[in-house]
Amino acid sequence: MEKFIPEVKSKLRTRIIEVPQVIYKASGIKVLGTRIKSLLFSTDIAIIKNTNANSIIAVYPFTPQLSITQALLEVAPVPVFVGVGGGITTGRRSIEIALQAELMGAYGAVVNAPTKNDVISEMYERIDIPIIATIVSEHDDYKGKLDAGARILNISGGARTASIVRKIREEYKDLPIIATGGPTDQSILETIEAGANAITYTPPSSAEIFAEIMNKYREEKEE
Q: pLDDT for 151-199, tens place per residue?
């Protein structure tokens, strides 16, 4: 029998980004004592401040900057997993960024798929928060990344994500796995059933949300 969940709402904060309900079927991952099932993939501080996601995964296609990390951590009301490079920005610089992110309060350091295993190994020796290694293909050296010190895998393989999750889960029964869930409840559920413990959700952009609101305003004026 499904439990009744009382809900308390605000008059002013009714427009929030809610993650798909199906994500709550995931087991979750306990990180530093906090159980996490959903991760919002965003660096938009307005969206981060107005979501019901359990946590934020803040990875962006630019060189990681501590000013961005600080802004995200100050605004987010939930744990933040911070991108620390590994592609263009790598080596000693990535390691130092990861250390600074930890000192600012990040819950984890996310390294990009091209990150070399020796960089992960050095990072593991330097920081205390978990290293989350991004995997984009079943051909990635995920075993080497785990041996080097990655504690969690973040699987982002597009349409092949569920099959990659399933393959890795068969090899590692207890490994914490985060994965992108895709655009539908069905694709999210498939990824969970394949073995993902937590799901990354990409929200609509502020521009998309605004467009919807403005269309509604226009419709009301025409009535």
A: 999 999 999 999 999 999 999 999 999 999 988 999 999 999 999 999 9
Q: How confident is the model at residue 223 (pLDDT cuts 50, 70, 90)?
A: low
**C-alpha–C-alpha distance, residues 214 and 222, integer Å:** 12
Contacts of 144 (CB under 8 A, 6+ apart): 117
Assigned token pair, 145 = 């990344």
Which of 105, 114, 153 lies closest to 133 in space, CA to CA?
153
pLDDT for the residue numbered 71: 95
3 state SS of 105: coil
Of 21, 5, 46, 18, give the one whose Cα is nearest residue 188.
21
Q: Chain-centre distance of CA 181, in angstroms?
A: 11
